[in-house]
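Q: I'm teaching a short session on how sequence maps to structure, and I want students to see two examples side by side rather than one. Could you give me a first protein with its sequence written out and its structure tokens following it? Keep the formatting plain so it prints cleanly on a handout.
A: Of course. Example one:
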Amino acid sequence: MGLYVGLMSGTSMDAVDAVLAEITDTGVDVCSQHALSLPMDLRTRLEDALDTDRLYARECWNLDAEVGAVFADAALALLEHAGTPPSRVAAIGSHGQTLYHAPDASPPITVQVGNPNIIASRTGIVTVADFRRMDVAAGGQGAPLAPLFHAFAFAGEHDRAVLNLGGIANVTLLPPAGAGPLLGFDTGPGNTLLDVWTREHLDQPFDTDGRWAASGQIQADLLTRMLEDPYFEAAPPKSTGRERFNRSWLNAALSGQGQTRVLPRDVQRTLVELTAVTVGAALNAHAARTREIYVCGGGALNRLLMQRIEHALPACRVTTTVALGVPPKAVEGAAFAWLARERLAGRSAGRSSVTGARRATTLGAVYHP
């Protein structure tokens, strides 16, 4: 038994999600959660770094230090909110902020910033970070990392799937114990394109409940062009990110409209459909027996998106991870808290069946204050 903190900033880069969890050998209890918004200047520079082909080393290290300081602030704010002194926390698991993820490149690369030395020093808590690169070094995708936690926290007597609707959508396929290998992969865009388009046209961080999208109409030609991306037909193991699904990718799809004017709300509606259709296709192809879908991540709060996923999976019961005892926005943070525990115990948390690595690996490096 012990208290652990998990820190996560995903593809949308809107905030650091911090979770305090009590973890035993048999389960996880989320004690508190807190979101700390990224400063706008820092967020802009991170987005610029993602959108440029050349990132100068000095800027990269500046971002590493500044993101590390924000992550430390998020951990300390969480503990203050929970009334928990740092001395009671066994470890922090920090994902960091991904700047570049190209596991299929030569050489394969994945880069997360958020200096864990700063987190450990400022909080006084042992910090585990750099979770992805060992799996990549072993020939894996380095993603998704949450499936083993999903198996620990959410597995049941029947086939289940956990769908994380973060910036990128990913699924974990959970067979009953001993009934088959654990599988998980990224299906494609989750919220990232929706949020980019909303910020551009509404000057809001996201489309609350999908209300703006609901006012639009699906553009069938645009949806067809987006679905032609070969990623959607590629077999797992596979992972992706904003290196592929970004504003330039959307621009290329929109350019095929020619002179036809598409209303911004219609683009938003079509992007919702893209996420729902690709999630549905992935689960129908790889989890045909599954009848229970548990959704987490920010997209679980998008009412229209949830309705469209239900429409794409009519044979399934689609609900959120609240039904399994963990709030949707706390799942990823809790996963990195659990991954820190596994690393300190010396247990492997990477799985070949998920990432395609040559062997199961221990994930993360340990930083002492």
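Q: Perfect. Now a second example for contrast.
A: Example two:
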Amino acid sequence: MSAYAALIAIIVDLLLFPVLDNSARAEPPASEDTIVLGDRGLIPTTPVPTPANEGAAESLKVSARAAFASDYIYRGVTLSDHKPAVGAGIEAALGALYAGTTFSSVKLPNQPAVEIATSAGLRPNLWNINWDFAWNYYAYPGMHSGPSVDYWQVSGRADTKLTQSLSVAAEFAYAPNYSNSGGWSKYGAFGVSVDLPLTELLQDVTASVTADVGYSWFGNQSAALGGFAPPASLNWNAGVTLKRKIFSLDLRYSDTNLSKEKCFVFTGDPNATRGGQVNPITNPEGLTSGLCGATFVAKLEFELK
């Protein structure tokens, strides 16, 4: 409960009591929230690009972010064993080109010291759509046991505003050797975001409601890992994001259709328990895991540009 208490104290200080100035009737700033769509890394790397002034020379822009979350959820599965997690990241952008790295604390069966997500790509704006074509590499140094689970993926994403307050986004990602398992993975997702009107007393705060749904499916793993495909799954989440200056607070519900038995097959949870439905190929002991399923997550993030 201490992690939640700390979050609440910071929320009250940073978000719910902004200092009012003389422009009490000014319009609230436009929301810059993005739809997560299953990004890996405690801090998602999907900022909306800022259009450059026509004819102006491009300049290098560097931004840094840090976050604290009550849980690190990735596509409906916890990567921190339902414990609090912290993350930090830095990104450099030159026009539409960008590269960055994030560091996230994790608690996985093979006990890596940290998750390092490195990304590079292109974010052009074409036909009033913000595109993001990315290459990502995920590394897990300091593992105590087992083979490396490092892997890379490529992805394409599109974001656009349908109205002043309504945005939609879609993404497709492909990894040829997911978690170094010998099998490919594919992921498709779609999401929506709605900016919320706020009272004049909260003029320094923006708010938005976002929701998305995604589907993961996989190819057969190597023979050493059983030779079968990990279970395909649907995941979804919905929540509200509040922003004030460089701070943002995200309160979100996340879930997946993975059963407890399939959750064990997917995660290899070392704390799995017996008593589930037996599958003679993928789960002959009927082991079950609680690393998947319904979860509420609170995340506090700040960004420096």
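Q: What should students look for in example two?
A: Point them to this: The chain has one domain: 2-17+30-304. Also worth mentioning: Residues 2-16 form the longest helix (15 residues).
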